[in-house]
Amino acid sequence: MFNGSYVVIDGDVVLAKSLHSSALENIFEMAHRNDHAMVFMDHTGMRTDQLSHPRIKECMESLLLPYPPIHKNPMDGEVYQALLFSTKGENPSDYEHAFSEFDFVRWHDLSVDIVPAGGSKAVGIQKAADLLNIPMEDTIAFGDGLNDIEMLQAAGVGVAMGNGTEQTKQAADFITKSVDEEGIHAGLKELGLI
């Protein structure tokens, strides 16, 4: 979960890499100065301090998720991933230059994922594969977004969903049906796994 920052196998947490807390506070302050909303996530859910923000609303709706609960201090506890609601044209590189503790991965025109530096879905899969004694060439990954590209390239077989971005499709070994057309089921059939 959380772009590979939190991995659970058979109910046991085997990887839990949280975001650097003081750097997270600093990026939160910078985001407020720039009028960029943020959402924070841990293993129990997500939260924000924005009562109603159109970018959060649009992005959550694109994932078919409800608007995150409002918290006075949304950074309480361990945070494994954050969302920064900034467009490409609003200088997101300013954040990247200021915060080397984090990696920034665009997943939506209006938002980037913030994960611990060096973390990714590929890293999470590698950790699980190592613990399960599965060679990476025997792994299969499904994805549709820009934050899935590294994972699709690292897995033995990378499968892009039919609704995926063009860049994601180019990184995959093959393309299956869209999420709405039961693409994972179709992909597993194509691979001969079901």
Q: Fill in the CATH topology of the largest domain.
A: Hypothetical Protein, Haloacid Dehalogenase-like Hydrolase, Chain: A, domain 2
Oligomeric state, counting identical vs distinct chains: single chain
Unreliable runs? none
The strand count comes to 10
Shape: globular
Instruction: Return the CATH class of the largest domain.
Output: Alpha Beta
Q: In angstroms, what separates the terminal alpha carbons?
A: 25 Å
Number of helices, where a helix is a run of at least 4 consecutive DSSP H or I residues: 7
Assign the CATH architecture of the largest domain: 2-Layer Sandwich
Mean pLDDT: 94
Summed up, the domain count is 2
Largest sheet strand order? 4-3-5-7-6
- Biggest sheet, in brief? 5 strands, antiparallel
Proportion in helices: 25-40%
- Helices and strands: which structural class? alpha+beta
Rg calculated over all Cα atoms: 17 Å
What proportion strand? 15-25%
N-to-C SSE string, H for helix and E for strand = EEHEEHEHEEHEHEHEH
